[in-house]
């Protein structure tokens, strides 16, 4: 196992074995925990909170050098972390693109500084860290949580986002063969598809796929999540042409929260990270929390 020494090994039950490294594993700081559950192996990396923040921030900003933009991203990552902790959630999957910890071996000095300068800062609503979101860009406005997921978050509201207009994904058009859709719809051969209605911010609220007397009803976000990443966002029109579905839409990503494209433009325009966050999260407060 790469020369690691294990300080603990135990059988937790009939199906679960547990091993833990005796020291930091280098690139992935903190303890590595390997769990064998049934026929699956799960690798857990137990890390310090700020190591998680700095790793995810680096993943999001990549080579960008706009410090205020990087600081805004760092606060969002930290807010996400402390929101989950407030819900007693301590295990995060590595399948979410903006929230994936990949170690601290290649952190730029700029990211390191930005994270340190925002140490302990999170966005809160009525004293509790919010559940923030990151999207790449929007179609001219952010979308409230309820229009994507159905239930309501009081602090998730729509704001105008004119800066996304210069993004290549502000408008887009893609074509997907009907053949590829049938595996999701369960309809062998579609006759037609129609969007019945939209939400206030142009999210398809009812999409009906027809095949004779059979039909399947979906919401736009469900189709987006199924076809992701081929479908850039859940805001779109859809038309069936022959054996092809033509999607025309706006924005890239979930469309909620902080649009990275626009946040970067605000930083380029000289705005501070606090002003960027206040604009996209107008009913939340930038709060300094104490270390756990």
TrEMBL record:
Residue span(s) of domain Sporulation stage II protein D amidase enhancer LytB N-terminal: 42-125
Domain of life: Bacteria
Classification via Pfam families: SpoIID
GO biological process: sporulation resulting in formation of a cellular spore
Entry-linked InterPro entries: SpoIID/LytB, SpoIID/LytB_N
Protein's name in the database: SpoIID/LytB domain-containing protein
Species for this entry: candidate division WOR-3 bacterium
């Amino acid at each position: 196992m790469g020369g690691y020494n294990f300080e603990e090994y135990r059988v937790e039950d009939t199906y679960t074995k547990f091993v833990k490294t005796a020291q930091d594993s280098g690139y992935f700081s903190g303890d590595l925990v390997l769990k064998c559950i049934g026929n699956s192996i799960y690798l857990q990396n137990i890390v310090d909170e700020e190591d998680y923040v700095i790793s995810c921030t680096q993943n999001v900003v990549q080579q960008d050098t706009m410090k205020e933009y990087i600081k805004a991203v760092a606060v969002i990552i930290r807010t996400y972390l402390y929101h989950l902790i407030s819900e007693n959630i301590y295990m995060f999957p590595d399948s979410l693109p903006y929230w994936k910890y990949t170690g601290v071996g290649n952190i730029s000095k700029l990211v390191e500084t930005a994270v340190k300068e925002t140490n302990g800062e999170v966005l809160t609503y009525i004293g509790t860290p919010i559940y923030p979101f990151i999207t790449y860009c929007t179609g001219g406005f952010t979308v409230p949580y309820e229009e994507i997921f159905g239930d309501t978050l009081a602090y998730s509201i729509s704001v105008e986002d004119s800066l996304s207009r210069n993004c290549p994904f502000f408008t887009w058009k893609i074509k997907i063969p009907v053949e590829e859709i049938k595996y999701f719809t369960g309809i062998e051969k579609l006759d037609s598809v129609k969007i019945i209605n939209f939400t206030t911010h142009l999210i398809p609220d009812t999409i009906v796929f027809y095949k004779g007397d059979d039909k399947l009803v979906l919401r736009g976000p469900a189709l987006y999540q199924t076809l992701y990443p081929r479908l850039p966002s859940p805001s779109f029109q859809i038309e069936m042409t022959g054996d092809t579905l033509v999607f025309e839409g706006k924005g890239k990503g979930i469309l909620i929260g902080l649009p990275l494209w626009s946040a970067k433009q605000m930083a380029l325009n000289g705005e501070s990270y606090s002003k960027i966050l206040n604009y996209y999260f107008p009913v939340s407060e930038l709060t300094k929390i104490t270390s756990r």
